[in-house]
Input
Amino acid sequence: MKGAVMTGDRGCEVREFPRPEADRGEVVLRIEATGICGSDLHVYRGDRDMKQIGGHEPAGVVVEVGAGVRRLKPGDRVSVHHHHGCGVCEQCARGETVACRVDHQVYGVGRPGSFAQYMSAGEANCIPLPEPLSFADGACMACVGTTAYAALRRIDARAQETLAVFGLGPVGLSAVLVGKAMGLRVIGMDVIDERMNLALVCGADEVVDGRDEDALEQIIAFSRTPGADWVEGVDCLVETSGATAARELMIPAIRRQGRIAIVGVGGEEAVINPSQIHGKACTIVGSVVFPLGWSWDFVRFLLEAGLSFEPMVTHRFGIDDACQALRVADEGRCGKVLIEPHR
Output
């Protein structure tokens, strides 16, 4: 089979690999779609030769099951949660495989990933993908989509509230889609024209150019509704950009007792004054990926809401063009970039 390896300093190679076999408790998937995530781009831009297949947003069909597999069978459609834990520690018991203290591995980093025609995955990590959902939906579920859902869940976002999304890359666009499906009014902010336009396609009520001097004033104006002119800031905010300039606007942009989820990975600058938190009596939550069980909840949410991530997909590539796919995603003037290995 063919698979793509990130070789460091924005290098990439498509190579031939043996097709994986299913070990005990594992299945082999034929990958139908896999997304390129911002986390993949951190690896792509770094100086480390990964020496193995990258990618951690797989969706596909089970073609082989190993010994001890009890739930899955050949032909099942699945998405895969990308953090693999030991299964027996305290954090794994809570579904927080991302924080496993015994044997934490990530597909595409510690284990061969999904930029390939086939991959092996633990049965416990495989989430059912019912027929109404596309393989593109499954790829987005594997990381960015459920990450956005988890951020909104952690700050208890509710219908009729206002939501600001800072950063309109794939996680931010997912927050727009999920937020609208939850019944929120959504305003997005970015500095890339293509992504601001795409946010409107995904249902954002308004967008703000973060380069505007009055960006904060535009967000405050959006938060006001007729008959409630005393509202001075949005109810909820999801920060996905990691940019210092955006983070400096987080607390000023929310109302008193507003809630913020920090999702984006950024610099080390100290941009939050505790007195601001105290003054607004606000809640700030660090939101890192999601517990394994929330993936199952999210499938039900997508089905009940009739939600698809297809509107944010802008590019699709076959496995032979995986390196071009990484270059397009790295440029940032796009929505979600998918690799469809059998395309």
About this structure: The CA atoms of residues 143 and 290 lie 9 Å apart.
